[in-house]
Amino acid sequence: MMRFGWMVLPLALAACTQDEMPTGAEDFASYCAACHGTSGKGDGPAAAGLAKRPADLTQLSARNGGAFPGTAVMAKIWGYTGKDGGSPMPQFGPLLQGELVPFDGGDGIATPTPVRLVGLAEHVRLLQAK
Fold this sequence. Notes:
- The protein is built from five helices and two strands; from the N terminus they run ααααββα.
- The chain is mainly alpha-helical.
- It has helices at residues 8-17, 24-31, 33-36, 70-78, 115-126, and strands at residues 100-104, 110-114.
């Protein structure tokens, strides 16, 4: 580990000069936890006032044969409702716009995707029940 220590200072200086981007966990706390709860189980404080209980995000992989459906999660967060339309979930895409990173959803094609959207989906992936 020590041999890479020289990289820490330049990275720390770069981080100080740029605007701090929220982490996926911070975006989840800001945009998702009110309905989905801090643990992602659909039990947030605003859930009681909704006509339909928010999804239990901890079961996404279990409901998808053990594989986390990252691309579908990002589409839902962004606001793409697909053929069933009319989702009660707000569209967060405009709030997550910014720096793009190449993201491969599993088809071998790297698509420019907002880094905050990828970070938020990664946080949801970490919430999955074991």
